[in-house]
Each structure stands twice: as C-alpha cells, then as structure tokens.
Amino acid sequence: MADVASRSTSRTGSDASTAELVQRATEQVSRLVRDELALARAELTRKSKHAGIGIGLFGGGGVMAFFGAGAMVATVILALALVLPAWAAALIVSVALFLLAGILALAGRQQVSRAGRPLPEATVRSVRADVDTVAAAVKDGRRG
CA 131 to CA 137: how far, in whole Å? Predict the structure, then answer.
C-alpha cells in the first residue's frame, strides 16, 4: 500500500513527463529486442560451429570407413570364393551389405527424429521471461 501511496503523490519538477516515459520505454524495448537477437545469434553461432566441426569429422571418418569397408568386402568375397563360385560369393556379400544398409538407415532415421527442433532454447526462455516481466509491469501499472 505504501508503494501505491508514494506513486499517487503529486508530480514534482524532477518527475518525467509521459512523453519522456514513453520514449524511455521505447528505447528500452528496442535495446531488449536487440540484446535478445544478439543472444540468439551468439547461441546459434556456437551451436552451428560445434555441429559443423562434428559433421566434418564424421564425414572424414565415413570416408575412411568406406575405403576400409571396400577392402573388407573384397576380402570376404575372396575368402568365400575359395569354397563357392566367385559369383555366388559376391552375391551373398552384396545381399548382406544391402541388409546392413537398410538397418543402418532405419536407425539413422530414428536418431534424427529424436533430435528435435533446432531452436535456441536459452533465448526462447529469456524472451518468455521478458514478456512475462513486461506483462506483469503493465498489469501492475494499470492497478496503480
């Protein structure tokens, strides 16, 4: 109650006019929006940098695995060709590789669906808090 009573006292020469208060509020909202955008930009930059490095390393590992897998496939085919005709050995290995490829594709699709949306969560939380604060201040201003 004391807070409300102090607000209702008469204006002195040092009190800001309504136009000045609106101007300050506009400047503060503009600064808040700029700061939130800067936070989102910084968060997304950090996330994308880590993701880019990870994707590059994953790609390099994939290339090496591809060459290693090719050599291993040739080895398996040559080993099977010792007991079967060469065409049968190659067919068996090919079918096994296609089955493995299908299983890996299904597992990859499941992992991608678990990843969720690429949102800057900290920025979203901060903006929600800002909106709640401004809404509460507006509501309190109407009561006072």
Answer: 10
